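Problem: given the chain below (268 residues), write out its structure.
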Amino acid sequence: MKIKTLYEDKDLLVIDKPSGIAVHADGRSHEKTIVDWFLKKYPKTKNVGEPIQIATVSKNFQILLRPGIVHRLDKETSGVLVLAKNQKAYEFLKNQFKEREVKKVYNAIVSGWVKEDKGIINKPIGRSPTDFRRRLAGRGARGELKEAITQYKVLKRFEAPCVQNFSSCALHRVRGGTLGDKNFKRTSPSKFTYLEVMPKTGRTHQIRVHMKFLNHPVACDTLYDPKGFCPKGLGRLALHAKSIEIKNLKGKVLKIEAVLPKKFKKYL
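Solution.
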């Protein structure tokens, strides 16, 4: 597993997480994770962090320790990820996230042309009533609704050849048709918007959920927009954690950036 280091000192490590690698185990998959890589490289971090309880495939519960993990990125999201190398750093960083002192910037490609050049989505997020993997903003959300605020700015609106579900040619829905019937017509290219996104809170799948709420789901998102469009050749979730601004244990403000993936650049 090749992982690029963006910053390191005796207390923390900041890496550029590749798309397609989970941050930590979920009790269902046996694929290697960032935690596996981190423990191999820094075995003394084994007990850094706090235990969490997760549901396994058999619907039992398993207690896991996520060494060094103070925040997370979705498996298909790439970019800046911070890890703590000792318990003191872990507590210090966790408090910054809790107090919303951390500044995060993402880049996203979303479906369609976003009308407003900038905006704020202030919509609490709960659980989906139909899929345990998904979260939901707006009507129908279940369970505890947690405050979620996302700010965005349009960087570019563009058109690109695309595929649907990563395999077939782009198809635009017309007159309420369904995939494969006569009410679909073949069109190319399709519209996309390149955004800079600044989440002010840190809810699970927050950017993906809020962009879905805005009717501009993140491109190539097979969980929240399984029949949506994906720029041809991208082949991954179009979401990248561009930068993060945190304090180290000496109180110095660090702004750390990850280079935009090559697959993004060709569309921009």
